[in-house]
Give the backbone structure.
Amino acid sequence: MGIVRTWGSTAAERALSQPCDDLLPDADDVVWRAITVRATPATTFRWLCQLRVAPYSYDLLDNLGRRSPRTLTPGLEDLAVGQTVATIFELASFETNVHLTLVARRARGVFGDVAITYAVRPDGDETRLLVKMRIRYPHGRYGALARRVLPAGDLVMMRKQLRNLAALAAGRPATHR
């Protein structure tokens, strides 16, 4: 499978079912990302709620140069299905302190249909943040290109996102752009 599709995750984590499985059961591809966060599940989840206003990855690329907030924004923890998350996603389901599940907006992205679950799991005094992304690529040449590019590109972007969120949840500064 390789690091491009499994970065940070364990085989046991990859065996777990996630809410995104039901949203896109006939996916062409599945990728996992995971990181240990030195914070409680509640604090980690609260930082995930910040994705409603910013992607927390490379701000120059995916946030039009605007800096993702480095402090918690009041009210973002008030979730409702249908809310916009990280500009291109919609909140499909959630369970407070357990998971956020997103789908690409109906206009779909350039990469086809995408469903993602960000799962928060207690791990001793820390938290495991596990992300599972299911993808159904478009047909034709464009879909073939997306199949080759999306997993690696996502690894670069989501690795940065998860590291930033983990740092902020632990009370450390996020890395710069």
Notes: Residues 1 and 31 are 9 Å apart (CA to CA). The longest strand covers residues 113-123. The helical segments are 3-6, 11-14, 20-23, 41-49, 59-62, 140-169.
